[in-house]
Each structure stands twice: as structure tokens, then as C-alpha cells.
Specification:
Distance between the termini: 68 Å
Order of helices and strands: HEHEHHHHHHHHEEEE
Largest sheet: 6 strands, mixed
Number of domains: 1
Helix content: 40-55%
Structural class: alpha+beta
CATH class: Mainly Alpha
CATH architecture: Up-down Bundle
CATH superfamily: Peptidase C65 Otubain, subdomain 2
Shape: globular
Strand content: 5-15%
Length: 259
């Protein structure tokens, strides 16, 4: 039997990837509704004691979860929604962040990002921040983040802010890179394009750029007990503003119990 031409194999793989992406888009909201944290347990076998026990441990601190679409943009989308939701109830932090966001366009252009592109995404970003300042409802914010065009514009701008911070502090962040890759190449290949998954380097850079403290809870098989582990970015003793759940390759939004 003759081997299938290499070009046909590549096309078949591409079609398969596109089919998977379409299925994800058809079945997962960009940002989901609030759900009870214990519903996480339904995603795992009941006899999977590691995950079931860790979810019970997680439920001691968190009451709800809000899922995001697994499309490679989940960290940035989860960060954007969760932080803007936080700003609805913290006017001082809102004013600080709005001031930062308003100035960020000029800094991006100074760093060499194309002015026309930056201005387009910045305008949409500021439009949403101003709506938050006008005290839109959480449901209205959710509607924005479920609109693919608007939601992706926010993700792109957060990616640009992350890339800019990595390049500004290249001497520090280059320690995270492997294989002799330059920071410019890393940013153009792994940070700025949509659908590229995020790692610690992205989280540290975005937290550093925006001044937002993020707590990541890790739901994985690490450790030998039923206690869930977390990392704060930065780990400077501040109370986190947003809480995200990391499952290998994916981020969702967590909500603490109301005291």
C-alpha cells in the first residue's frame, strides 16, 4: 500500500485541529457563568481521590468558579474579566489602573509597536475601562467578554502589555528562556499571537506591568497529600486582587467565600 503524500497528511492534521477548535468554540463560552466550586468534581472520576480531595480542600476557601474557553487565551481572558470585575468595587484601584492604561499606548509605541495597531486596540481597551468606571453590571461585563470581537481585542492588548514588559526588563526575564532564544523572538512567537498558551513568565510580566497581585491555585497531581498549592504573583505579602485556578494547560476564575 502506497504511503500517503506528506502534503495530504499535513492537510489532514490541519483539518483535525480546525475541527477540534470549532468543537471547543461551539461548546464552551468564552467566559462562563458562576458555578458551585464542588461541580469541579464532576470532571474527574469519583475514585480519583487525589483530585476529589484537592477539590474539597479548594472548596474551603472558594465558593464559586467561572470557566473560560480552552482556546490558548484563557489566562489573559480570565485575568481581564476577573480584574475588571474587581475594579467595579474598588474606586481607588480603578483610578490607579485607568491612569496606567491611558499612558500605556505611548509606551508601547515608543517600544516599537506599530502606532496604528496599538491605537486601535488601546481605544477598545479604554472604552471598556471607562464603562467599568461608569459602574456597568457584572452581567454587562460578561456580555462584553462573550462577544468574540470585543473579548479578543482585550486579550490582544493584554498580550501587548505583557510583551512590552518582557522587553523592557529583558535582562531579568531572559533567565526564563531556553535554547538561546532572543526575547524579541519569544515575544513575537509565544506572547503576542493569539491562542499561544501562557506560562509563569507571562503571568509574572503581566502582574509586574499592571501592578495586579494574582494568586494561582494549582489543581494537579503534585504533592502527596490532599492539600492544594498556590503561588502569588508577586509574592510580596499583598492580598491578591484576583484568584485563578490552574489545571494543566488551562486557567479558570475563582471566587472566595464571602465573609
Amino acid at each position: 500500500m502506497a504511503a500517503e503524500p506528506e502534503g495530504n497528511v499535513d492537510e489532514a492534521i490541519l483539518r483535525q485541529v480546525e475541527d477540534i477548535q470549532k468543537e471547543i468554540a461551539d461548546t464552551q463560552q468564552l467566559v462562563g457563568r458562576l458555578q458551585n466550586i464542588l461541580l469541579l468534581g464532576d470532571q474527574y472520576q469519583q475514585d480519583d481521590t487525589i483530585f476529589q480531595n484537592k477539590i474539597k480542600d479548594l472548596s474551603k476557601q472558594y465558593a464559586h468558579i467561572r470557566t473560560t474557553r480552552a482556546d490558548g487565551n484563557c489566562f489573559f481572558r480570565a485575568f481581564g474579566f476577573s480584574y475588571l470585575e474587581y475594579l467595579l468595587n474598588d474606586r481607588v484601584e480603578y483610578e490607579r489602573f485607568r491612569n496606567f492604561a491611558a499612558k500605556s499606548k505611548d509606551e508601547l509605541i515608543t517600544l516599537g509597536f506599530p502606532a496604528f495597531t496599538v491605537e486601535d486596540f488601546h481605544d477598545t481597551f479604554m472604552e471598556l475601562i471607562d464603562k467599568v468606571g461608569e459602574k456597568i453590571s457584572v452581567d454587562e461585563l460578561l456580555t462584553v467578554f462573550r462577544d468574540e470581537g470585543m473579548s479578543n481585542y482585550i486579550v490582544v492588548y493584554l498580550r501587548l502589555l505583557t510583551s512590552a514588559q518582557l522587553q523592557k526588563k529583558e535582562e531579568f526575564f531572559e533567565n526564563f528562556l531556553e535554547g538561546g532564544q532572543t526575547m524579541k523572538d519569544f515575544c513575537s512567537q509565544e506572547v503576542e499571537p493569539m491562542a499561544r498558551e501562557s506560562d509563569n513568565i507571562h503571568i509574572i510580566a503581566l502582574s509586574d506591568a499592571t501592578g495586579v497581585c494574582i494568586r494561582i491555585e494549582h489543581l494537579d497531581r503534585s504533592g502527596t497529600d490532599a492539600t492544594i498549592n498556590h503561588h502569588d504573583f508577586p509574592d510580596d505579602g499583598r492580598e491578591p486582587m484576583i484568584y485563578l485556578l490552574y489545571k494543566p494547560g488551562h486557567y479558570d476564575i475563582l471566587y472566595k467565600h464571602v465573609k
